[in-house]
Write a structure and sequence with these properties.
Length: 451
C-alpha cells in the first residue's frame, strides 16, 4: 500500500469519527454508521442493531433504507443472526463468520437475504458496556487490514453512542423536572380558574315541550244527550256567527215531542169532558182541578221537547276557526250534555302552553322571559312572557307529571298557527354556574338518600 493510499485511509477514518462525534440525534448517528462507513470499508449491506432497556434486539438502521418495516422477513432474519451470537462471550470481539457458523434452524434464510461473508463488529462503550453492534455483509472474504479498520471505527461509533445516550438521559431528566413543575403550576392555575368559573353568575333556564293554543276561545259542547249525526264544519275551517256546526240525531227527541203532544191532547179532552160534567156533578169539580194541573205539566213537557228539537242543530255563537280532531271520530258517537265537542278560537290571539316536568321545575315568576322554538321554524325563536303557572302538577297525555305554564307571545305581527308544537326555554333568576350544573345531580342524590 502506497503512502498516498495510507494517507487517504487515515483522513477518511478521521472524517468518519468527526461525523460520529457531531451527530446530534441517534437517528443521525445510525445513518452515519450504516451509510458513511462505505467510504472506508467496502460492503454490500450494513445493519446497525442495539439492545433496548428490556434486553431485546432492535434493528436501528439498514444501509440504503430510509425507514425499514420492523416486521419484514429481512429484519426478522437479521435479528435471528444477532441472537445467534449475542449475548455469548465471543460477541464482544470482532470476527468474520459465514452461514456455517450459524445454528441449523437459522441457516435457511441466509442465502435468500445475505451475501456469503459477514463481519461482526460489536460497539463497546468506554465503560465496558455493549451498546450494540454492526453487521457488514459482502460477497468477498474479509482481510486482516479491513478487520482492524472496522474495529477502530466501531470503537469510535461506540463512544459516540455512549455520549448521545448520556446526553439524552440528562435532557430527559431536565425535561421531566421542568415538565413536573410546569404541570403542577398548570394544575394550580386550572384549579383556581375552575373555582372562579364555578362562581360566575348565570341565568338558570329549563326546557319543556310547548304547544301553540288559542288565548280567546269559545267551547262548544253537546246541548243534550244523544248521538252526533252530521258535521257541517271541518277542522281548521273558518266559521261565522250563527253558522251550523253539527247536529245530533233527532229521532228520540222528535218521537218524545210527538208523544208529549198526543198526551197533552188526551188530557185536554178529558179536561173538557170533566168541565161539562162539573155543572151537574159535584165530584167532577175536583177532577177538573187535577186535570188542569196535568195539562200544565204536559204543556211544559211538550214545550221542553220542542225547545230540544230546536237545539238539535248547534250553531256558532262567534266567528273564528273550528278547533277539533278528526270528524269521523265523532260521527255516530253518543255524547252527554255538556260534553266538549270543539272550540272556536280567534287565530289572531294565541299563546303558548308549556308542560314543565316536575323534575325540571324551578322558581317561576310572572313576567319571566320565555323563548319558544317551534319545530316548524327552529331557527326563529319566538319571545314570550310567562303569564301564569299552575300550582298543582297533573299528568300529561304522555304520562309525565308536569306543571302547566301559559306564556303570552309578544311582538308577533303574524301569530303562529294554532296546534304547532316545539320546545320552550324558560328563564329563571340568576344563580352560580356551579348550582346550574349540579342542580339536577344534587336533587337526584337527595332523593336517593332521602334527605
Amino acid at each position: 500500500m502506497t503512502p498516498e493510499q495510507q494517507l487517504l485511509i487515515l483522513s477518511t477514518l478521521i472524517q468518519l469519527e468527526k461525523l460520529a462525534r457531531h451527530a446530534q440525534t441517534p437517528a443521525e448517528l445510525s445513518f452515519v454508521i450504516v451509510n458513511e462507513s462505505l467510504r472506508l470499508i467496502h460492503y454490500r449491506q450494513a445493519i446497525f442493531w442495539r439492545k433496548d432497556a428490556g434486553g431485546n434486539i432492535r434493528i436501528e438502521a439498514i444501509s440504503g433504507a430510509d425507514s425499514p418495516d420492523p416486521h419484514s422477513p429481512f429484519l426478522n432474519s437479521a435479528k435471528n443472526i444477532v441472537k445467534n451470537f449475542f449475548p455469548k462471550p465471543e460477541s464482544r470481539n470482532i470476527f468474520v463468520f459465514t452461514e456455517k457458523d450459524l445454528s441449523e434452524n437459522r441457516r435457511s434464510e441466509w442465502k435468500e437475504y445475505f451475501p456469503e461473508f459477514a463481519l461482526w463488529c460489536p460497539l463497546i462503550s468506554p465503560g465496558g458496556g455493549m451498546e450494540g453492534g454492526i453487521l457488514f455483509f459482502r460477497e468477498s472474504p474479509w482481510d486482516k487490514a479491513e478487520t482492524a479498520l472496522s474495529e477502530y471505527l466501531a470503537d469510535a461509533y461506540a463512544h459516540a453512542c455512549a455520549a448521545l445516550k448520556r446526553k439524552s438521559r440528562f435532557s430527559v431528566q431536565a425535561m421531566f423536572a421542568r415538565s413536573v413543575l410546569q404541570k403542577r403550576a398548570l394544575q394550580a392555575i386550572s384549579f383556581l380558574l375552575f373555582v372562579l368559573l364555578m362562581q360566575a353568575p348565570v341565568r338558570i333556564s329549563v326546557l319543556a315541550p310547548a304547544e301553540i293554543v288559542p288565548f280567546h276561545f269559545f267551547v262548544v259542547s253537546a246541548p243534550a244527550d244523544g248521538v252526533i249525526r252530521q258535521f257541517h264544519t271541518e277542522p281548521g275551517q273558518a266559521v261565522k256567527a250563527g253558522q251550523v256546526l253539527f247536529e245530533l240525531d233527532d229521532t228520540a227527541a222528535r218521537n218524545a215531542y210527538e208523544v208529549s203532544k198526543k198526551a197533552l191532547g188526551v188530557i185536554q179532552a178529558e179536561y173538557m169532558r170533566a168541565a161539562q160534567k162539573a155543572f151537574s156533578d159535584e165530584n167532577s169539580r175536583e177532577t177538573v182541578l187535577l186535570l188542569k194541573a196535568q195539562i200544565e205539566q204536559k204543556s211544559a213537557e211538550s214545550e221542553y221537547m220542542a225547545a230540544m228539537l230546536k237545539r238539535i242543530k248547534v250553531c256558532a255563537e262567534q266567528e273564528g276557526i273550528a278547533v277539533l280532531g278528526d270528524v269521523s271520530d265523532w260521527l255516530g258517537k253518543p255524547v252527554m250534555t255538556g260534553e266538549k265537542i270543539l272550540t272556536i278560537a280567534d287565530p289572531a290571539s294565541v299563546e303558548a302552553e308549556i308542560h314543565l316536568p316536575v323534575s325540571d321545575a324551578v322558581n317561576l315568576e310572572t313576567g319571566a322571559d320565555v323563548l319558544i322554538f317551534l319545530n316548524a321554524e327552529p331557527n326563529r325563536p319566538l319571545p314570550a312572557k310567562l303569564r301564569r303557572a299552575d300550582y298543582e302538577a297533573r299528568l300529561t297525555p304522555d304520562g309525565v307529571l308536569s306543571f302547566r305554564v301559559k306564556a303570552s307571545l309578544s311582538g308577533e305581527a303574524h301569530p303562529p298557527r294554532i296546534g304547532l308544537r316545539g320546545s320552550a326555554k324558560i328563564y329563571g333568576k340568576e344563580v352560580t354556574l356551579f348550582y346550574c350544573i349540579m342542580r339536577r345531580p344534587l336533587s337526584a342524590l337527595r332523593q336517593y338518600f332521602g334527605l
